[in-house]
Design goal:
- The chain is of the alpha+beta class and about 190 residues long.
- It has one domain.
- The protein has three helices and eleven strands; from the N terminus they run H-E-E-E-E-E-E-H-H-E-E-E-E-E.
- The strands form two sheets. Strands 3, 4, 5, 6, 9, 10 and 11 form a seven-stranded antiparallel sheet that branches. The chain has a four-stranded antiparallel sheet with strand order 2-1-7-8, with helices on one face.
- A hairpin with a 2-residue loop joins strand 9 and strand 10.
- The chain is globular, with a radius of gyration of 19 Å.
Length: about 190
């Protein structure tokens, strides 16, 4: 019985150290602290480039480590308008196709997005917004550096490799991850 108990303890220790590489995971919720005043917060104040999008019924893709923004045009224009963008987000090449009249977007991010860096995220958002962002974390995996921001509610939602889909305001997002680390995000407006 003692040998079985010792074996269980040993297996648990080995499993835990192999899963984390022997180091503490960098994405623990408690590690995320803020050092940004509310008036300088990228989400709840009027800080460029976000300020020109607030109030729009649309969303954007953001690197939470740098707060670089790629807005997605989701407001209907009529006439079957299609938008194609080929931006870079924190050095990651992207392809963005939106069909605003249909309320859909397809975002492909090539290359591996890193994880959200606790010390970097807090440089851009205040404590209240950081708490809301941390509330969107999946309990099953680290948030990537990619987030989706809803311009009408100013909500920032984490994208995690362990979550296949989630909602952001009036939008539903489905994420697929490539073996090489890239990701595809399909976004659809929820008709009300």
């Amino acid at each position: 019985m003692k040998i079985l108990k010792a074996l269980c303890v040993l297996m648990t220790v080995l499993l835990l150290t192999s899963c984390s590489g022997g180091e503490k995971e960098r994405w623990d919720r408690e590690d995320f602290v803020y050092c940004t005043a509310r008036e300088d917060c990228f989400l709840c104040s009027e800080v460029p480039p976000f300020d020109s999008f607030w109030g729009q019924d649309s969303i954007g893709i953001v690197s939470v480590n740098t707060f670089e923004l790629v807005p997605l045009e989701m407001t209907p224009r009529g006439g079957g308008y299609v938008s194609v963008q080929v931006p870079r987000l924190n050095g990651l090449p992207m392809s963005v196709y939106t069909l605003p009249d249909m309320g859909i977007a397809d975002v492909s991010i090539d290359g591996e997005a890193g994880i959200a860096e606790p010390e970097r995220v807090g440089e851009f958002i205040c404590g209240e917004c950081l708490d809301k962002y941390k509330g969107s974390f999946s309990p099953n995996g680290a948030p990537t550096e990619i987030g989706i921001v809803d311009f009408s509610t100013r909500e920032l939602v984490a994208v995690s490799r362990s979550e296949g889909w989630f909602t952001v305001g009036d939008f539903v997002a489905e994420c697929d991850f490539d073996q090489d680390g890239g990701m595809n995000i399909f976004i659809c407006a929820v008709s009300g």
